[in-house]
Structures are given as C-alpha cells and as structure tokens.
Amino acid sequence: MGMYLDALLLLGAVALIAGIVLTLAAKFMAVPVNETQVKIRECLPGANCGACGFAGCDDYAGALADDPDNVPLNACVPGGAAAASAIAEVLGKDADAAGGGEAKIARVHCRGIDGKRCGEGEAACKYGCIACGACVEACHFGAMNIIDGVAVVDRAACVGCGACEAACPNGIISVAPADSRVFVGCSSSDKGADTRKACTAGCLACGKCASTCKFGAIEVVDNHAVIDYEKCKNCGMCAKVCPANIIIVMPKNA
Q1: Where do the DSSP E strands lie in 51-181?
Q2: Which residue segments constitute the domains of the chain, with CATH numbers given?
Q3: Burial zone of 3 (CB within 10 Å; 0-12 exposed, 13-18 middle, 19+ buried)
Q4: What pTM was estimated for this model as a whole?
Q5: What percentage of the chain reaches a pLDDT higher than 90?
Q6: Residue 146 in 3-state DSSP?
C-alpha cells in the first residue's frame, strides 16, 4: 500500500511542477496579441486569396493595425464595401471615405471550339486553356469550373479576387471590372493564319475591332485583340465587326 501511495505522491509532484513550468512559460513566452488586428481579422472573409496585395487575411489585418493611415481599408476584394466599412469602424475611420473598392470579375480568354478545348496533341492551341484545373483549385469560392475542356467562370460566385489569374499556367485568365460586358475570347500570340489552323475560334489579328472603336478602347497586341477597360463603354461595336466572333458581349444582367 505504501508503495502505491509513494507513486501517487510522486506523480502528483511531477504534475504540480509541470503545471508551474507551463504557467510560467505561458506568462513569459507569450506572444503579445494585437487586439486591433484581431478585430480587423474578424471583418475579413478569410479567403486568403491575396487580392489585397498581402499574403493572406492575417497579414492584411496586421498591416492595417500597424499602419492604418497608409494601408488601404478597401483592399479586400471578396469582402467589398461591407468589409471596408467594418474595418473603418474598428479603426475609427470615415466609413464613406473607405469605399469598397471596384467590383471585379474573372475572364477566361479562351472559348475553345464550340465550347470545347482547341484541339488535341500537337494540333492543340498552345496558348489556350489546357484544362489543368489549377484555377479550380485556387478558387476559394467555387467560381471556376472546367466544362468540356475549357475553364468557365460562374459569374454569380466570382468575387474577382484574382486567385485563378495567378494560378493559370497559360496566363489566359484576367480580372476585369465587374460592370464590363465586353471581353476577348482568345489569347493566341500566333499570326492569324496560324491561329486558325489550331482553332477556328481564334483571333485573326485583323484589327477591324480597333479601327471601329470610337473610344480607342481596343487594340491588337501580340496578335490578339486586347481591351482597355478604362476606355471601354460596353457599346459592343467591336464585337459586331469581328469576323471571327471572338469578342463577346455579355447581357447586362448576366
């Protein structure tokens, strides 16, 4: 009986000493918590998409807490105006001045052929979607899908964070203003004739769109049409004259 009692006393003493050591360690080795950072972090959606320019929500919250006068309150694209307003309240800033940043949406500059991937093997377009799924994996909002071998954006789910753009190995995804309705469905850098050998839906680089636009909002760059959204008025004239039908005009409420 005495042996068991000694063992219990020994275990109790060890537990007591361990508890004291852990308590002291927690007190003297604890990392200080920035309460402002914690409150800002609670205002963010937690997507960790990097659209704000920081590594993730924690880094953005920390930067705001450390330098609220120079770090923009409205950099969170997924959070939009709601997040900007909540952050402004935490920091005691003017919520109206914080704004919500410009709403954006992803565009895939490859339509494929009749909605399918542009060729297979050596005949495939080397500039088009390769259906690798990197954009799907990168999207935290389920807004990217591979349909018939081509990446497709779910406009209702997309928040314009740009994670898919960064992940695309062929660089055929870009992020544009959400209210823009015109985009080019081709990224080929080959000359028109060569592009059409691989894809009947490719840009001819003919320049008709550029010569038609009254606002100087579209030009041919590296053998395919590129839109300047700061100038584009969504008139759709470029799409009407495109002989290859690779300029798409989305419906107003799409």
Answers
A1: 104-108, 144-147, 150-153, 173-177
A2: 35-98 (1.10.15.40), 104-249 (3.30.70.20)
A3: exposed
A4: 0.72
A5: 51
A6: strand
